[in-house]
């Protein structure tokens, strides 16, 4: 019972902190011109993100207890084993490394190599992925990103850059 109370308190404090960050983001976004959907101002996107953070902060305390979810998953699962702590840490490390690679590679080589690096490294965080499946996923997402961001949205980020 004591563990459940600690989990509820931790979720409540975590949700409150995220909602507070969202509220502060909304307050700061109001110092810029927000605009409207057809003509977005510099404060529009931060306002939107702040709203999402507030909503997320309010939903976190309502989430189910992790122990109850784990018991349900283990009993309802089709025999798939739960990931170990090392596998979860590998996933988190690969996602963080993928984001770092996107920043570095994007700075020196452009959008397409950076997107490929991001997706490939992040996909390697899943132990069920092989390097070949991660490369195929990365290639598909890079193509999708080129179509959406370069052609569709006309993003001002060079597709390739040398140096």
TrEMBL record:
Species lineage: Bacteria, Pseudomonadati, Pseudomonadota, Betaproteobacteria, Burkholderiales
Span of domain DUF1468: 13-158
Name of the protein in its database record: DUF1468 domain-containing protein
Annotated keywords: Membrane, Transmembrane, Transmembrane helix
Membrane spanning residue stretches: 12-32, 44-62, 95-121, 133-153
Superkingdom, natural source: Bacteria
InterPro entries: DUF1468 (IPR009936)
Pfam families in the cross-refs: TctB
């Amino acid at each position: 019972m004591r563990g459940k109370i600690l989990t509820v308190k931790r979720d409540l404090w975590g949700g409150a902190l995220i909602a507070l960050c969202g509220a502060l983001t909304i307050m700061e976004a109001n110092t810029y011109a927000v605009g409207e959907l057809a003509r977005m101002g510099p404060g529009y996107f931060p306002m939107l993100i702040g709203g999402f953070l507030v909503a997320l902060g309010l939903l976190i305390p309502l989430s189910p207890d992790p122990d109850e979810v784990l018991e349900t998953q283990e009993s309802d699962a089709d025999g798939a084993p739960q990931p170990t702590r090392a596998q979860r840490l590998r996933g988190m490390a690969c996602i963080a490394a993928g984001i770092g690679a996107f920043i570095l590679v994007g700075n020196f080589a452009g959008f397409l190599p950076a997107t490929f690096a991001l997706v490939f490294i992040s996909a390697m965080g899943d132990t069920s992925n092989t390097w070949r499946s991660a490369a195929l996923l990365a290639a598909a997402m890079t193509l999708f990103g080129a179509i959406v961001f370069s052609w569709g949205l006309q993003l001002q980020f060079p597709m390739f850059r040398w140096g």
